[in-house]
Amino acid sequence: MQQVFCDWGTSSLRGYLLDDSKIIQKYSSDLGLLKAQKIGYEKVLDSVLDSFQCEHDIPIYFSGMIGSKQGWAEAPYVPTPVGIEQMKGKTIKPAKNIHIIGGVSHLDGSGNYDVMRGEEVQVFGVLEQEPATSLICLPGSHSKWVKIEAGQIKIFATWMTGELFKALSENTIFSTQLESKEFNHEAFIQGVGFAREHHDLGSSLFKLRIEYLFERSDKHHFYSYLSGFLIASEIREAIGVAKKVSLCGSDSLMNSYALALEVFGVESKQFPSETATIRGIEKICGENNE
């Protein structure tokens, strides 16, 4: 039986046409919510289905920001602790053949909320492959660190590392000291080391400028140096006493995080986000896949 799974975020849309759980076609574009709102969600979906040359009435499953208040229809947040069974009851159907998976919310001991949409699907996709994992990191624009207990999302927190990196490298004084975006292993490790020694992010960022002024870093390698510094700053705050982490994301980001984690003496195992998304949607919506 054919089905369509989509990870529909704020700035991107990734779709998969499956036949008996096997991917037979893929779709990827920048038609995330910001652009799709102007075009119309139905029209964007039609273009995805047309690219697959499939029937428009086959089962379709969405995860991500498409289920937010700004999306096609709002799918409710499920409060932690949350497992597969709780997620199954929180999908909504804005159309007969369309299912949108809800997000997850967490209220910490200080009374502060955190939320995720899309990452929860990947978390359950990782757990399907690695049931014993207790800590999952999903690096990205807004990186999530998720603690697992008894197969449930127990606690999670968010770091805006990817978005901060983009803002700093493109819109601050650091943009004048960036000449190449080519990854440099040595510079990245140096940035990781600097973050491990300097724990105050605000003041440490200016020290990166001083490092450049006194020629301890250079334009050719500063992109990697800044990346290593920010990723390590996130890891230092998030890792706690853990000695093993499951990573789920793009290959390039997982490789960078794995390299930084190694410096911290932490073992990591990688799970591509595409596979985790598909396995997670199948797990959450399995009994509805008809």
UniProtKB/TrEMBL annotation:
- Which keywords label this protein? Kinase, Transferase
Q: Which InterPro entries match?
A: DGOK, DGOK_C, DGOK_N
Q: Which terms does the UniProt entry file under GO BP?
A: D-galactonate catabolic process
The keyword Kinase appears for this protein: yes
UniProt key word Membrane: no
The highest taxon in the source lineage is Bacteria
* GO molecular function terms attached to this record: 2-dehydro-3-deoxygalactonokinase activity
Please state the span of the N-terminal signal peptide per the UniProt entry: none
What is the protein's name according to its record? Answer: Putative 2-oxo-3-deoxygalactonate kinase
Which species?
Answer: Lentisphaera araneosa HTCC2155
